[in-house]
Design a protein that fits this description.
alpha+beta, six-stranded antiparallel β-sheet, 1 helix, about 15% helix
């Protein structure tokens, strides 16, 4: 079972989310972990080639809105992922 994201904390860090590029920034990146699909917003951690980023998908009625963060080292991205799950990052 995939984890759920905790409620956002008042003093959380805001991530910069951007629209998807036509070409993938990390061509060999793969989703390694994701949040539960039961929520309207699903987060994924992508890793590949020693780099990583987070993807946010908002599931709407007829389409999905997808955004990604900047590219980080895998250790930085995993720390951001843990912050996201705990509500300290959004």
């Amino acid at each position: 079972m995939s984890p759920h994201v905790a409620m956002v904390q008042r003093d959380h860090v805001r991530l910069k989310w951007r629209q998807l590029y036509p070409e993938p920034v990390l061509k060999r990146a793969r989703s390694t972990i994701w949040t539960c699909l039961c929520r309207a917003t699903v987060y994924e951690l992508y890793e590949g080639g020693g780099r990583a980023f987070l993807r946010r998908t908002v599931q709407l009625d007829r389409k999905h809105e997808v955004h990604e963060t900047s590219i980080y080292s895998i250790s930085e991205a995993r720390a951001i992922w843990m912050g996201l799950l705990s509500g300290r990052v959004r």
